Amino acid sequence: MVTLLVHDPQWILCLATGVRALYVLVIITFIVVVVVVVVVVVVVVVVVVVVVVVVVVVVVVVVVLVVVIIVVLIVVVVAVEVSSSSSSSSRSSSRNSSSNSSGGGGFKQQ
Predict the structure, then answer these.
(1) What 3-state class would DSSP assign to 8?
(2) Nearest 5 degrees, angle CA 44-CA 47-CA 51?
(3) Interior CA angle at 96 toward 91 and 99, to 5°?
(4) Cα 28 to Cα 41: distance, rounded to the nearest angstrom
(5) Alpha-carbon distance values, 30 to 12, 14, 37, 41, 87 (Å)
(6) Which of 3, 76, 97, 99 is most exposed by smallest CB count within 10 Å?
(7) Which pTM was predicted?
(8) Where are the stretches annotated Disordered (predicted)?
(9) Is 17 helix (H, G, I), strand (E, B) or coil?
């Protein structure tokens, strides 16, 4: 029986076919693993890029909002100052004109 297995060429062909099938299986497994690793790396890179873009957009929006709020506050403060200074100057000029007219009138009567 052992001599039959050794001298039988079919047994060697079966062994060679099995080894060939094993090589094909290893190559297919290697290709699948490489494809999976490449896909995982691409997905991780895309996720990182998306997160970075979202963070940059949020930072830009926050900075723009802060700048707009500061500009609006400056405009409001300047407007309030201008309106209060103009109203106080108009009050003081009206006081001066009323005191000048009364004082001038009293001076002419003498």
Answers:
(1) coil
(2) 140
(3) 125
(4) 20
(5) 27, 24, 10, 16, 85
(6) 3
(7) 0.51
(8) 82-110
(9) helix
Are residues 99 and 93 in contact, defined by beta-carbon separation less than 8 angstroms?
A: no
pLDDT at 80: 87
* Mean pLDDT (the chain, rounded): 80
What's the pLDDT at 5?
54
For 33-71, what is the HEC assignment? HHHHHHHHHHHHHHHHHHHHHHHHHHHHHHHHHHHHHHH
> Which backbone phi and psi does 8 adopt, to 5 degrees?
-80, 120
Cα dihedral sign for 83, 89, 91, 93?
Answer: negative
Return the closest-CA partner of residue 43 out of 35, 54, 55.
Answer: 35
Give 11's contacts (C-beta < 8 A, 6+ positions apart).
Answer: 5
Token pair in block for residue 94: 């009206």
Q: Can you give the pLDDT at residue 11?
A: 60
